[in-house]
Amino acid sequence: MGILRADRITGLGGANAIKGSVFFNRSASSFLRTDIDDTNYVLGTDDFTLELWHNTPTLDTTNGLIMFGPGGYGYYNSLFHFSGADVQMYISSNGTSWDIASGTKIGERVVNTWHHYALTREGNTFRGFIDGVLGATFTSSGAIRQGSSEFNKNQIIIGHRITTTLGHISNFRYIKGRALYTAAFTPPVGELEVTSDTILLCCQSPSNILQEATGKTLIAEAGGSSNAVSAAENVGPPVASRFTPNSPVGFSTTTDAGSQYGSTFDGFGNFATSTYMVPPAGNTKERFPDFKAVPAASARGLFGGGAQPFDTKLNLIEFITISTTGNAQDFGDLTVARGAIFGCSSNVRGVFAGGASPSAGNTIDFVTISTTGDANDFGDLTTAARNGSGASNSTRGVFALGQAGGYSDSIDFITIFTGGNGLNFGDLTQSRDQLGSCASTTRGLFAGGLITPTPSVNLTNIIDFVTISTTAKATDFGDLLQGGSNGVRRLGGLSNAIRGLFAGGESTGAQSNIISFITMATTGDAQDFGDLSAAVTQADNGASSSVRGVFHLTSPANTTLHYVTINTAGNSTDFGDMTSASTVAGMSNGHGGLG
Asked: Distance between CA atoms of 196 and 213, rounded to whole angstroms?
């Protein structure tokens, strides 16, 4: 029999526990620094890795997150530096100019959102990452300059040059002699640990800002003020906090009560100790999952919601094993019955959003894909919406909202492994609904759609794309094959890591049997893939693995599932049938955005 680990419940020994952070206020002289002149803090020409989690309540232009060497004068090395939403690097080898990197952008940040930042050097190659996405690569043979009369010559400074609130830093780690990240990666899902080449690891404690995992000494500078924080003025030294990366709303900074610290079993009614004897540390509703890719043979697809007939909204969720064939099976129920629904998924969770019940709603709910059971509340969209479309990678989902009080160009985003309300991402290139979508590990694509209430003349063939880890306006990718220049609506999308497929739809009153494909990493117009077995008015977004994709076809009361092999070309083959019809949300735990 398994042993129920008390330390996993209390949060004191959990493998995924991220226990604390350090909050930096708006004082320009409030920061942490290392205490001695140590050559270990000299970057020079060595390989290295710098990484941390950061959450800011505001965007500004003068914050320096991590600095090496000079702290406030001259050509300091600012890693990372902020200019509004942009995350940049300033790196000097000569002390008279930023000759290695001068405002080099590695990506963008969003307020009140945890981001993982990383900078590595491998030989002469520097790489900057945000949330595991490679945002900048540049080369230099120069030795990074350090040494200054300010404080001690060789030191690390955390949270300096602040003119507005910097926010929270958690799990800052400096590794010397090794570039830990050299390509896109999934950010760490638990508290960082000391490795044999770790020089500094700090900002992990909920109660001690000077905690450092390798035994180094840190000093808190408070700009000449006392060590007591003035809450009214928000000045003074950095302060420890329980605001942690696995909780988007933060833990309490004032209490260790059980519901605020350690594991909180919310979002679920109970757990079976016979099958789960070691509960995970952290909040079970918002904990970080294990981002292992799901093998094609075991990848599961979900289809949820719909209407049958149109006025009867459904709360059904059904599932299939993508590598097999056969009729879909009952999974559970949505929190609210609705049609015109859309969704996205990670390798762990499926998320259903929006939909008509009977009018448009803002509900977001989620399920754990590998199990069966009813959906749980996740949060709300920024506005009520229906006929939207979702795309996702292993951490973030983006939703084109579709009909949201009119034809909308708005895109919301969520962090799939947490819970919470949608946030504004940016805009499509064109307002529309009834569009298809798919995703790679870095990109979300949105295709086609209805742009005004007159479908015979007001359709689009546009394919847009966004970079999922950022927030920005969508960019033109190319044009669909379906519908030609007349455009198409109600088409379905799915993908693996290489290809995105779009199927079916309606153009100027004509049903389509076309399947087209694009290469996710490029841009360009869609190309012919093959045909569906019959022309359909609507093909909903499908479920896919790395090998196979399954579309749900609606014409308008058809409940058929059809599959294709994504990396080849050819016509679709019958998979089986579903109970539900009309605008279901399709998703899987093995699609192309998971990596």
From this structure: 12
